[in-house]
Specification:
215 residues, alpha+beta, 60s Ribosomal Protein L30, Chain: A, 5-stranded mixed β-sheet, two-stranded antiparallel sheet
Length: 215
């Protein structure tokens, strides 16, 4: 799927809470974005520019957070006290506890992933420390707010055919959180499966799928 398309990474400086994601795309994507293209942005960078990154020490883990975090794999995003507390604060104690109980029961019957479906949107999206680019590798980052609306605004502001907010990693996990009208989220997820984003030293949190409309 990805071989059909030319994918152009767009270098930027490190984007922070002081940046407007649309203005940054217009600045760094100037002369690179065409009317048939789809502009894709890494979800963590959108979230950071929305002010959705917090230092772990700003959370006070409750007893429930300390207990529940131990039930998840150590490499997971909610395996730490502070990241579990961040999830509880946004989704609620009862919802998270209920999701853990039902998820555990479902696992006994060979059904995986139930917790993440029941635990609320942020259960799948929170990045724990080291989960994103410096200097935000020392922060817990929530998933972006209203990604579909952000995608629509990006498409309108840049004159592109469309836009997408994507969560992609190097383990062949590709998920599109929001797209503008006319863009197929499943198709874009497949196009981005090899993770053309570079959120660390590469500083390419924006990529352009060229001539998407014409394929």
């Amino acid at each position: 799927m990805a071989d059909k398309y030319e994918i152009v990474p767009v270098p930027t400086r490190i984007l922070t809470i002081h940046d407007d994601i649309i203005e940054a795309i217009k600045e760094y994507g100037a002369g690179k974005i065409g009317p048939g293209d789809v502009v894709c942005v890494a979800e963590s960078v959108v979230a950071i520019t929305q002010g959705r990154a917090r230092r772990p020490e700003s959370f006070r883990p409750c007893f429930l957070a300390k207990v529940l975090s131990q039930l998840f794999p150590s490499q997971g995003s909610i395996a730490g006290w502070h990241s579990m507390q961040s999830l509880i604060e946004v989704e609620g104690q009862f919802r998270i506890l209920f999701a853990v109980i039902i998820g555990a029961i479902a696992k006994c019957f060979g059904i995986a992933g139930v917790f993440y479906r029941m635990g609320g949107e942020q259960a799948k999206l929170i990045d724990d420390v080291t989960g994103t680019m410096p200097p935000y590798d020392k922060h817990i980052v929530y998933g972006p707010d209203r990604p579909a609306q952000v995608a629509e605004a990006i498409a309108k502001a840049t004159g592109a055919y469309g836009a997408a907010i994507a969560d992609v990693n190097d383990l062949k996990r590709s998920c599109v959180l929001g797209v503008s009208q006319g863009v197929d989220s499943d198709e874009v997820a497949k196009i981005l499966i090899d993770n053309p984003f570079g959120n660390a030293s590469q500083k390419t949190p924006i990529v352009i799928i060229k001539n998407y409309r014409n394929k």
